[in-house]
Amino acid sequence: MASTGKQTTDEPETAVETARRQLERAAAHLDVDPGVIARLKHPDQVHRVSVPLKRDDGDTEIFTGYRAQHDSVRGPFKGGMRYHPGVTEEECIGLSMWMTWKCAVMDLPFGGAKGGIVVNPKELSNEEKERLTRRFAEELRDFIGPMRDIPAPDMGTDAQAMAWFMDAYSMQEGETQPGVVTGKPPVIGGSYGREESPGRSVAIIAREACEYYDYPLEDTTVAIQGFGSVGANAALSLHEWGANVVAVSDVNGAIYDEDGLDIDRIPTHEEEPEAVTTFDGHEPIPNEELLELDVDVLIPAAIGNVLTEANARDVQADIIVEGANGPTTTTADEIFEKRDIHVIPDILANAGGVTVSYFEWLQDINRRQWSLERVNEELESEMLNAWDSVRAEVEERGVTWRDAAYIVGLSRIADAHKARGLWP
Question: Less Cβ crowding at N or C end of the chain, within 10 Å?
C-alpha cells in the first residue's frame, strides 16, 4: 500500500529529545534516585575541535569535529565516529546517550560516546581522508584512550579509517595501542566478524521475535530497508536460516518479489554500491513502498525517522526489528503500540556491533585473537542473554519491547551510580 500523503504534525525529533524521552519513560517504571536521572539527561563532556586539512590542491580547509562523552559509570566511553555533513553537537550528544543505554542493555563494561566531523567523505580523496583522520586523532588525543574512550566506525568511516586513527594515536604515545579504537582490520588487532556483527545481531533478534510470537521462520516473510552492512548481513543470515526475504533496498529504491529474493546473488553496498535496483529480473519500487508491504517482519536498516505519523497506519508488518538507529518517531511508536505491532528497539537489535567491539577490545588487551567461530558463538550467547533480560521485563510489567529494553539498561546504570556514589 502506498503512502496516503496526508498532512502530518509528526516533526522528526532530535536524538537528544528522543533519548531523554525514553529515559523518562523507563524511569517511571523504576525507583531510581531523581538525581541519577538528572545526571543522565546530560553528557559528562562534549569536545569540539577544529580539524585543519591540507587539500590535494594545496589549499587548507578547516572542519569541525565533535566527541560527546555521555556516561562512564560502568566503564570507558564507547561509540562511533562518523564523517557526514549533517553531524552536529546535539546529534552526537543524543547518539552518545543511546550508546550508554545500548551498552547497559548488553551488560557491557562501557559507557556511551559518539563523535564525528562535519564533512562529506565523498568529496575527499583517499589521501585527504587519511590526513583528516590522523589530524582528528591528534586533536582528540587528550580525551581518548583504551581505558578512557574508544571510537569505532560509523557513517562515512570504515576499518581503514580506524587503522589510520590507531596509528596516529600510537605514534604520539610512542607505543602501539590497538585498543584505542575498534573496527580495525584483523591484521592489526581487529576482530573477525566485527563488520558483519550489527546485521547478524539484527537477524538473531528477528529470529527470536519470530519464535516468541510463533512465526515459523521458514514461513515468515521479511522486508529490509537498506542493504549496507546492517541490512545486507541481516538479510544473508535470515535467508540462510530459512526466512523468506521478499524485499530489500538501497538509496535508489527497492526490489520486491513475493516468492522471495535470491539474497546471495544481490551485491551488497560494499561489493557494488547502490546496485540493488539494477539486480536482474526485478522492477524497482520506491523505498517508502517497501515500508508498507504486507510482510510478517519489517527491518528498517537504513536511516533514522523513516517510520512516522505519515506512514505508521499503513505499515502492514506484524513485527518491526530496528536495524538502523532511531528509525521510528515517537508518534509512530504510539501508533504501533495501539495497533499491536511489536517493535523490537535498536538498542537491543543492532547491538551486535558494540558487542563484538567489546570482544575486539578484550582481544587487544590480551594480545590474543579469537576465531570467527568463537566470535559468532559469543555474540549469539550475549544476544540471547540480552533478549532474555528484556523479554522478562515485557512479561512481568506488560510494557513494550522498547520500554523493557530501557528499563533493563537504566536499572543497571542506576545501580552502578548508586554503588559508586557522587564525588564531592
Answer: C
pLDDT in tens, 354-371: 999 999 999 999 999 999
Three cell numbers, residue 45: 563532556
Sheet holding 77-84, edge to edge: 45-54, 60-71, 111-118, 77-84, 149-153
Find the catalytic residue in 78, 102, 114, 184. 114
Edge-to-edge strand order for the sheet containing 297-300?
Answer: 284-285, 253-256, 244-250, 221-225, 297-300, 319-321, 342-344
114 catalytic? Reply is yes
- For 19-77, write each residue's pLDDT tens digit: 888 899 889 999 999 999 999 999 999 999 999 999 999 999 999 999 999 999 999 99
Q: Could you give all domains of the chain from N- to C-terminal order, each with its CATH number?
A: 1-28+194-349+377-424 (3.40.50.720), 43-181 (3.40.50.10860)
DSSP code per residue over 281-333: T--EE-HHHHTTSS-SEEEE-S-SS-B-TTTGGG---SEEE--SSS-B-HHHH
Q: Whole-prediction pTM value?
A: 0.91
Which residue, among 171, 172, 246, 243, has the nearest Cα to 210 in the 3D structure? 243
Per the CB < 8 A criterion, the answer to whether 293 and 246 are in contact is yes
